[in-house]
Amino acid sequence: MGSLHVEDLDNISKCTVENPLDPEEFRRQGHMMIDFLADYYRDIEKYPVRSQVEPGYLRKEIPDSAPYNPESIETILEDVHKQIIPGITHWQSPNYFAYFPSSGSVAGFLGEMLSTGFNVVGFNWMSSPAATELESIVMDWLGKMLKLPKSFLFSGNGGGVLQGTTCEAILCTLTAARDRMLNKIGRENICKLVVYGSDQTHCALQKAAQIAGIHPNNFRAVPTTKANDYGLSASALRSTILEDIEAGLVPLFLCATVGTTSSTAVDPIGPLCKVASDYSIWVHVDAAYAGSACICPEFRHFIDGVENADSFSLNAHKWFFTTLDCCCLWVKEPSALIKALSTNPEYLRNKATESHQVVDYKDWQIALSRRFRAMKLWLVLRSYGVANLRNFLRSHVKMAKNFEGFIALDKRFEIVVPRTFAMVCFRLLPPRSPLIIKTNGYQNGNGVYHKDESRANELNRRLLESINASGSAYMTHSMVGGVYMIRFAVGASLTEERHVILAWKVVQEHADAVLATF
Amino acid sequence: MGSLHVEDLDNISKCTVENPLDPEEFRRQGHMMIDFLADYYRDIEKYPVRSQVEPGYLRKEIPDSAPYNPESIETILEDVHKQIIPGITHWQSPNYFAYFPSSGSVAGFLGEMLSTGFNVVGFNWMSSPAATELESIVMDWLGKMLKLPKSFLFSGNGGGVLQGTTCEAILCTLTAARDRMLNKIGRENICKLVVYGSDQTHCALQKAAQIAGIHPNNFRAVPTTKANDYGLSASALRSTILEDIEAGLVPLFLCATVGTTSSTAVDPIGPLCKVASDYSIWVHVDAAYAGSACICPEFRHFIDGVENADSFSLNAHKWFFTTLDCCCLWVKEPSALIKALSTNPEYLRNKATESHQVVDYKDWQIALSRRFRAMKLWLVLRSYGVANLRNFLRSHVKMAKNFEGFIALDKRFEIVVPRTFAMVCFRLLPPRSPLIIKTNGYQNGNGVYHKDESRANELNRRLLESINASGSAYMTHSMVGGVYMIRFAVGASLTEERHVILAWKVVQEHADAVLATF
Fold first, then answer.
1. What global pTM score does this model have?
2. What is the interface pTM, i.e. ipTM, of the complex?
3. Are A164 and B367 within 8 A, CB to CB?
4. Residues A44, A90: contact at Cβ < 8 Å?
5. Which residue intervals of chain B bear CATH 3.40.640.10?
């Protein structure tokens, strides 16, 4: 470990260095890393799921400048064990039920290896034809599995593209919608454009609107209600739009969600598209989490009406086994994206582009450079096949259903919103008063546990922190309609029935402990 | 390979499926893939560098829907060989000299494996503390290696973040600059904001301006000249700014480049920052390619003056061995980024964030989700150490210098712009007239080869296509000052001296052939 001062004298290279991509060294270290990770997955249950470190832990363990001389992979892997793993929250743990899953798999990992191994920069067709062509093909494959209308596929007049995240997908489609509109009404009207979502829409929409220069006052988070299961109501949307038009504003873009982050609520795509079409609003359907489930016929109806939307996206890295990042976006009118996002510098000119026979994905996204993400989606689709993919998803849904069943049997708890996919939103109900607890202990009758919301919220905050601090399982929270609830999302690839049973026991034990001092 | 119709009946799962992340299956297939890739690197020279396929080749070889049943990894790898590799342009080939390098290495690959293996979604500190903390630490490490002023480091009051690409880095900083300005002058003035670059600035700036809602008329590509080696002149910038102010517009953002894509020109950072500061313009320094070289003391002067810029970025995936994607961005005022890019939904609330003791990188970038990219940068820095990293870069520069030397010895060619880093811009000069060629053949005197620009451009277009079609080496072109030139960028990790010598022979042979029919 050297300092950065002495070696400034070394501006003539002193030694012959090994090639940094030597094939045999790649083989040796690569095998070592595979074993390291296979062991990690085998032993993953021994780590606390949520990292238990305190802010700043790593600066105390790591030198404050880069080493001057090389260090061996053996040393580095030891440090990964000692310094990094304690600071990891184990998203791949079978006891991970937080946020949404970050869905790993052998096939996804191998696809990422191929993509990193070839390390091509697929900005246009020319730069590596296979990267572009495979992407177009697998996006059609997945589109067909979802029974998307042909207008979203290359085999129709639309097409699909792999983005990194939904944030990017929304920003790209919003920019396309914005420019299409401004080309009609004049650029100087940008401050009049209005973007719509519900109060349950992912923050990606707000962020995309901020970046695209939409006036912050023109972002509408239309309130939802328990009566609609926190879905966006078409009539509420229409009233909001009418008010905006009345105020001289220009409705632009609606993001409808299938499977909201807080509670997996589903906005009614069909009715919302109908309203939107009356005002020429671009509709993007964000099915980041729940879209994957729609490859199963029994879930497909949740995206009924998508044929009237302009764009549709889902995150294959959430619940479709590709590892982060892999957001699948389909659009009906690729030319709208291309008009908004293309640039054509001389150094990228080539015959294939000029022949107009190819797709240049650089014009479908924010960045110029892009990884060969189609590889991992292709490997996932082929390694598991449609049949197994459906089975994986169904097994997660079934496990969530079982967990829901456990809750129903323990009257201290309630399901806050109905379960739709593989996530259960529940909470512990507070006892009526400390006196009753002390004298009678817990009773399972509804009389004892009631809905004093602020006490309930505090109780569940404590319960969740108690569970997570134990390291035995990890869940996160959300709040809908003023109710703090615990989200239990099944979907980590290693999770089996027994982990769900264990998690429920953990919840019960911590409920006992928390109630005892509440 | 099934169709998508029959199996719609199968909405009850029929078979118990294997776990998609089974550790021993991971181990088995992982080792297989390491050997596949090690063999690929060993044999890479047998493939044509630029893919030779025609548009649409892959649709002919691949079924038009996803398989219903799983396929084995052995079958898939066979198809990678037969169907994918022919469509790959081999960016990792030692005979690859196109665009800029996409710099792979064993350490970068291993870092990517760890990142993909842990598969954490590091949107905030809480979601995986190690991901955030390691990123802050390695960004300080690399910042120190570059001798960036302390104001760009976390150990000062600034900080670094890993973005995917320079396009994202520019969009984020531009958005931050935009909102800082609009908060002063009012949102309704967005159409008055002006963005500056030169006619050599990467198209990332134009794209970022488009996305951020800058009026298309307010994008300035200030012309450069051969006299300034295609660097942006401070006085030209000032005149352009003054004209804009005169017209009632508001100067906002300057992107200065260290190592332009066309010719690795260097904009004079110091003088440009001085002009910019007179008008409170945010200066971003885009050192995507050449920034890496600045870890060598003999190259550091190219970023002198950076202390007066607002933000600085380089692509570690270009010439710093991390594999795609890894753009390092440092900013002096992280709060400007955070104000423009933050959102704080309930489902992400946590104690660490509320303690204000931690960095939440989601507020430093476009997307919410983010991969653990710091891992690969950490592995590269430790596996090679500062000493070897400098040596790698110097060896590329030396090879480019040798290539330049070969050109100087063959009077049929000329160097179009002076070489600064590891890229040589050259062209073949056309013979004076067909008659002279036919009767006298080629002569090496300057009298015979002259600069008829349009003929020269056509000649070099043919030469480049001839070289690339051969598959022996791959180079790309650019155009500066009306001159079409061939870019020879050394930097693929496998390239050795002998490949550069071979490439020069290839250039000479194809020049012979092309001149013979010109």
1. 0.94
2. 0.94
3. yes
4. yes
5. 121-371
